[in-house]
C-alpha cells in the first residue's frame, strides 16, 4: 500500500520528528489519521505544546498520531 507523502516538519521545530503511521493501521483508521497528522504538522506545534493543551503525555500523543497503542475512551 502506498502512503501519501507528508509535508516535512519545519526546520525550526524542536524535538524529534514524528514517526510513521504503523503498518497495522486499517484503511478506515488511516483515512482519519492522515488528515489529523497533516494538520498537526502544519500547525507548527510541538508535542510539548500539544501535551500542555490536551493534558496527555508526549509519549501517548506520539503513539496516538502513529496509530499504535490503545486510544483513550
Provide structural commentary:
With 73 residues, the chain is an all-alpha fold. Helices cover 47% and strands 0% of the residues. It contains three helices and no strands. It has helices at residues 27-43, 47-54, 58-66. The longest helix has 17 residues, at 27-43. The N and C termini lie far apart (29 Å).
Distance between the termini: 29 Å
The overall strand count is: 0
Helix tally?
3
What number is the mean pLDDT?
A: 83
The shape, in one word, is globular
Structural class: mainly alpha
Helix content: 40-55%
Radius of gyration: 12 Å
Fraction of residues in β-strands: under 5%
Keywords:
47% helix, 0% strand, 3 helices, 73 residues, mainly alpha
Quick structural overview:
This protein is mostly helical.
Topology, element by element:
Layout: H1 27-43, H2 47-54, H3 58-66
Amino acid at each position: 500500500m502506498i502512503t501519501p507523502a507528508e509535508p516535512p516538519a519545519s526546520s525550526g521545530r524542536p524535538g524529534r520528528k514524528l514517526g510513521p503511521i504503523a503498518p497495522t493501521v486499517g484503511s478506515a483508521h488511516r483515512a482519519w489519521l492522515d488528515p489529523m497528522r497533516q494538520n498537526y504538522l502544519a500547525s507548527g506545534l510541538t508535542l510539548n505544546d500539544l501535551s500542555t493543551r490536551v493534558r496527555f503525555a508526549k509519549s501517548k500523543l506520539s503513539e496516538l498520531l502513529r496509530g499504535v497503542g490503545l486510544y483513550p475512551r
